[in-house]
From TrEMBL:
Name of the protein: Trehalase / alfa-L-rhamnosidase / mannosyl oligosaccharide glucosidase
Species in which this protein is naturally found: Candidatus Galacturonatibacter soehngenii
MF (Gene Ontology): alpha,alpha-trehalase activity
Domain named Mannosylglycerate hydrolase MGH1-like glycoside hydrolase: residues: 42-393
GO biological process, one term: trehalose catabolic process
InterPro entries, per database record: 6-hairpin_glycosidase_sf (IPR008928), 6hp_glycosidase-like_sf (IPR012341), Glyco_hydro_37 (IPR001661), MGH1-like_GH (IPR054491)
UniProt cross-references to Pfam families, sorted A to Z: MGH1-like_GH
Length: 415
């Protein structure tokens, strides 16, 4: 294989300035955007992955001042979202300066239109930055805001009967047109994506509470317990023992007492599995709460030629699902099969977590081939790709989580 690692690093170093943005309008702090058509937008999980990738590279960049600037912009991501938190704890998923006096999602929320809020990457980004700089003091004054953030999640998006978090709707959920959530009724889907990352978010908040002064060990233990409860609920409700796969589930399950007929045995199950195999079903490997036995079966799914395996990583939807589609689409972006590097990376990391080093190396090499070939042909990188021929589908100039291919390379070297 060609030395795609070197060419990709050179491309990222050359283009990193394009995603480091100055404050503008009501975005008061420096921030990082994904590049391409997302110029000037502050996104929740996108900023997390950009920082995740860039912090892996900062010590290699030629410009000695770039490290401090990346850290400043990374902190700015967090500060911008906290700056636009509403009184009830709601934080928008995206901040975009436009014709409005404040973020559009905040305006709608104030009108009483309940929507999805900041995906569970806020505490995760704080921990990512703070561990890198070995300092948590910059978020000492934000604990009350983080409490409100979780209060809002538990009040509006948590179903106590099953112990899982739900999306309000399908808007800006990250994997935009995931069939388990896309086009379905409001508050009906507990998505494995949301719940897996929430386990990590709860654990990361516990870490923040232990690190920030004054230290709140009691509260930290509470959030650790909440993470464990959520893991248990995911295992109970979202793992299918027959298919040996993690599914999103329908939570709109109850006895409908319409008339005299419903007087006997009522609905006693809490959820129904939405049996659509998405890449998010592998996130329990990334989050680290899958059992070793479950990991074994999930690895079989990852490398199944009929479902997820591709010469360029994994498809975001199993190839034998009837929704599998490679259409060029934006808003929603297409997660119905195309290769996305963030999916490749989380699967790669999940494999490493459970000791599947050779399998992880295959995902890494396939990802290098995909992006290296694209860079060679187009002189750019794209948002997502055809899983059969590796051709880019849309949005040239996309940086963001494509950087994670170099995280793969570095993490393999440490094995």
């Amino acid at each position: 294989m060609k030395n795609y690692e070197a060419s990709l690093f050179e491309f990222i170093e050359k283009n990193v300035e394009n995603v480091l943005k100055k404050p503008v309008g009501f975005i008061k702090y420096p921030f990082i955007d994904p590049g391409s058509v997302y110029d000037g937008n502050v996104w929740d999980w996108d900023t997390y992955w950009s920082v995740y990738g860039l912090l892996n590279l900062v010590n290699r960049f030629t410009d000695v001042n770039l490290k401090d600037r990346i850290i400043e912009h990374a902190k700015g991501n967090v500060k911008n979202f906290l700056d636009h938190q509403l009184e009830d704890g709601y934080i928008p998923m995206m901040i975009e300066v436009g014709k409005w006096p404040e973020p559009y999602l905040n305006m709608k929320h104030k009108e009483g239109i309940l929507m999805n809020m900041h995906k569970p990457f806020l505490c995760s980004q704080i921990v990512l930055i703070s561990d890198f700089i070995k300092d948590y003091s910059w978020v000492n004054d934000t604990i009350s805001q983080l409490d409100l953030y979780f209060d809002c999640y538990y009040k509006n998006y948590y179903f106590k009967n099953c112990g899982l978090f739900v999306w309000c709707d399908d808007i800006m959920i990250g994997m935009d047109n995931d069939p388990a959530s896309f086009g379905r009724p409001k508050f009906s889907t507990a998505n494995i994506f949301l719940n897996s990352f929430m386990v990590m978010e709860l654990n990361n908040y516990a870490k923040i509470l232990k690190e920030c002064a004054p230290y709140d060990t009691k509260k930290a233990e509470y959030y650790l317990m909440e993470a464990q409860k959520l893991e248990h609920a995911i295992q109970e409700e979202m793992y299918d023992k027959r298919d040996r796969f993690f599914y999103s589930v329908d939570v709109d399950v109850k006895t409908r007492n319409f008339d005299w007929f419903h007087q006997g045995l009522g609905v006693f199950w809490k959820t129904l599995p939405i049996k659509i195999r998405c890449w998010s079903g592998f996130l329990p490997l990334y989050a680290g709460f899958a059992t070793k036995e479950q990991a074994k079966y999930l690895v079989e799914h990852i490398f199944d030629e009929e479902t997820f395996k591709s010469p360029y990583g994994i498809t975001t939807l199993a190839k034998d699902e009837k929704m599998f589609d490679l259409s060029v689409t934006n808003n929603p972006s297409n997660w119905l099969g195309p290769i996305w590097l963030v999916a490749n990376y989380t699967v790669f990391k999940g494999l490493l977590n459970y000791g599947y080093v050779k399998e992880a190396e295959e995902i890494c090499n396939n990802s290098l081939l995909l992006l290296g070939t694209d860079l060679e042909k187009s002189k750019s990188l794209h948002e997502y790709y055809n899983p059969f021929n590796g051709e880019p589908i849309m949005n040239g100039g996309f940086i963001n989580w494509n950087i994670l291919v170099l995280n793969m390379v570095n993490e393999l070297k440490q094995c």
